[in-house]
Specification:
mainly alpha; 2 domains; extended
């Protein structure tokens, strides 16, 4: 999904400017952040019903919001809080339906 935009950006940025450490970080993100996280998620999804896994997919952006606020000191807006509230409300409604 991001490939077309990435291809446009890579044309404007000389990759030769990246140091060895930068490439190591790209590799780290490729392997651990993407592959390992996907494998852990797939293993967890295999252990619970699909309905439960799909409901808690909504928790992912909320946890990202919280971590970005705590670690990166990103601001949390009213829109963020409203969206998080709606996601939690949806999870509660679906949990009560079961």
């Amino acid at each position: 999904m991001f490939l077309p935009v990435a291809l446009l950006e890579v044309r404007a940025f000389p990759l030769s400017r990246l140091a060895r450490e930068d490439w190591a970080l790209v590799g780290y993100y490729s392997v651990f952040v993407t592959v390992v996280a996907f494998l852990l998620w797939a293993r967890g999804v295999a252990r619970v019903p699909a309905s439960a896994a799909s409901v808690f997919t909504g928790v992912l952006p909320i946890s990202a919001l919280g971590l970005s606020h705590l670690v990166l000191r990103e601001s949390v807006t009213v829109a963020h809080l409203l969206a998080a509230t709606l996601v939690v409300a949806g999870i509660v409604v679906l949990a009560r339906a079961n």
